[in-house]
Amino acid sequence: MAVNGFDIDAHRWDQSTFIGRLKHFANITDWRTALLPDSRLDEAKALVDSCRAGSVPPGTTVEQLHYAKKLYDSAFHPDTGERMNLIGRMSFQVPGGMAITGGMLQFYRTVPAVVFWQWVNQSFNALVNYTNRNAASPITTNQIGVAYLTATSTALATAVGLNLYTKKAPPLLARWVPFAAVASANCVNIPMMRQQELLNGIAVTDENGNKLGHSKKAAVKGITQVVISRVTMAAPGMIILPIIMQRLEKYKFMQRITFLHGPLQVMMVGGFLVFMVPAACSLFPQQCSMAVSKLEPELRESILSRYRGTVQYVYFNKGL
């Protein structure tokens, strides 16, 4: 199919519906794109830039442009256009998340193991949160350090405290401790890593992309949605898988292959994440909206005076 006036930034699927967003995020969080070399990603970016400039190479098909945009969206930041670090990309959530979550679920019995795996997980989360922040709100090295230490301390305190508390509790409760730690840490890690947005506001625009100002209320809405998405992403694997493992471990064949329990959990977590990463990202639109009437009084009055009520909603990138 030949290219003729192709709009490469137009969404292939309706972003106003969950199914449309699910197809979109299943496309750009495809873990296979994380295996591609930087040179291939740079080629995709060059093709996307060429298409935006209206100079698509002769012979390029729509399918090739769609694939180039998929690679671009999976590896380059939507605000800066810069290539994101590999570990922080959403396309790396499946391989990275399955290894770390599998470790947390397998090694939950001793305090040293709990401390190690929660530290690894929060280090991973901090990098993901920083990579997928709204880049229009810069954060200093000191703030990154405080966010990392605070989230790690929260996760460790929750995990170690509950680990000790559940020593005499039913075994299944002990298996759920990692999820409690992950959920509580996400409630700290993400807001702390994006504290500049909460302190100074997030950039908001009209539907045409014209900047209208900065809003703290918009930042609260966007970050809250990201926290909900991240907890949802982890929940099925970390809640359902312990139930499955507890039942499997009663069988004799499972008792004979205890050395395979860890790899088995890693693979099963991967199965959950293949579906949950795009599903969780799809819960809310990435290009978030907010009614002008719900903004801070100063910003609301500024927009009303400048646009005479013609602008009813503002838009902003909530991040992932």
UniProtKB/TrEMBL annotation:
GO cellular component, one term: mitochondrial membrane
Keywords: Amino-acid transport, Membrane, Mitochondrion, Transmembrane, Transmembrane helix, Transport
Subcellular location: Mitochondrion membrane
Pfam families: SFXNs (PF03820)
InterPro entries attached to this UniProt entry: Mtc
Record's bilayer topology term: Multi-pass membrane protein
Signal peptide: none
Transmembrane feature ranges: 227-245, 266-285
Coiled-coil ranges from the UniProt annotation: none
Record family assignment: Belongs to the sideroflexin family.
Name of the protein described by the UniProt record: Sidoreflexin
Organism the protein comes from: Umbra pygmaea (Eastern mudminnow)
